[in-house]
Amino acid sequence: MDNEMKGYYSKKKNKLLNDFNVTIELLKNTQKHREIITDSVKNELVSEYEKIIPKIPYFKGYRQRMFNNMLLITAQVLTAYRVFKVYDKKPGEIWEICHAALQLRLQMIPKIKKWIIKTAWNTLFRWIMMRRAKKNVKETLCNFELEYIKGNGGGYDYGIKYTKCGHHKFLKEQDAEEMLPYVCLADIALSETFGWA
Predict the structure, then answer these.
(1) Is residue 186 part of a domain?
(2) Residue 148 falls within a domain, yes or no?
(3) 54-108 residue pLDDT tens
(4) What is the reported pTM?
(5) pLDDT tens, 15-40?
(6) Is the dihedral of CA 30, 19, 66, 165 positive or negative?
(7) Total domains, the chain
(8) CA 57, 59, 64, 65 torsion: positive or negative?
(9) Where are the alpha helices (DSSP H) in the chain?
(10) Residue span of the structural domain in which 38 resides
């Protein structure tokens, strides 16, 4: 795509590494993951993430923001996949670790911010989605192709159908396609936190 910026995150490497370190420390302090996240494994995770940062896709534009943030989560999952695969962890086991980390990070979001997203933002977002669904709008944001669809009178009023997935493209480029079904599960934790349907 023409609005993709290669290497954008290289200049934000220190902030991304600091955030990643916070996540690892949160995970390391849980009883379930204390034995898995040793100092040696932590160093491997940080080193691997540092290699991945310049490869993370970034797309210009305000409307791309949510997808850029989701691709950052995918990059962290990719990091865990590469490190824990060496320790013979299966994709499902790796996802359990990543999911726990994501939930810990989501718990750190201030309640007021969650409330704002659940109320004002979600109301606006649903209104926009409904308008686009009525017009059957199709668009591309980041490496995601979306089709806004009207409900069938059953379980939903309107929704988004993804016809092309930026996570898939990124993981395929990084030879980590087997993690794709698990990356999609991140939507559940995000939906539960922010009240998305």
Answers:
(1) yes
(2) no
(3) 999 999 888 888 889 999 999 999 999 999 999 999 999 999 999 999 999 999 9
(4) 0.88
(5) 999 999 999 999 998 989 989 999 99
(6) negative
(7) 1
(8) positive
(9) 13-28, 39-52, 65-86, 91-107, 111-116, 122-134, 166-173, 180-184, 186-194
(10) 8-120+179-194
